[in-house]
Amino acid sequence: MRKIEHIGIAVKNLEASNQLFEKIFGNPPYKEEEVINEGVKTSFFMNGPNKIELLEATNPESPIAKFLDKKGEGIHHIAFDVENIEKEIQRLKGEGFIVLNETPKKGADNKLVAFLHPKGTNGVLIELCQEIQ
């Protein structure tokens, strides 16, 4: 893992949250997109070298909707940039971690993604991200 790629924050209302974070950072999101297969709309903010992703559920069965029902708004995951996501998945499986996506899937912001189950990571959902070439 090379660096923290972004921190994901689950929100109930993306438009209202975009306004809030625009006030915090002093600039609007640089990107908004919907990831239909995950049932989520996202926006991304830059703050120096750091990236924040806001996530709003688009249907009640999406992982974000379930998270919001259980825990409310707040930090959902920490994403790490990796050079080779397939190799990293195999390495982490070998270390005993539960990988939720053994085959990487297309995520937001032009990334291949996979997640580690929070039961094995002190309650933190970990996302692995690799830029799609």
Automatic annotation (TrEMBL):
Entry keyword annotation includes Isomerase: yes
Source domain of life: Bacteria
Pfam family of the protein (one): Glyoxalase_4
Residues in VOC domain copies: 3-131
EC number per UniProt: 5.1.99.1
Any one GO molecular function term: metal ion binding
Keyword list, A-Z: Isomerase, Metal-binding
GO biological process, any: L-methylmalonyl-CoA metabolic process
Similarity comment text for this entry: Belongs to the methylmalonyl-CoA epimerase family.
The name this protein goes by in its record: Methylmalonyl-CoA epimerase
Organism: Flavobacterium capsici
Organism placement in taxonomy: Bacteria, Pseudomonadati, Bacteroidota, Flavobacteriia, Flavobacteriales
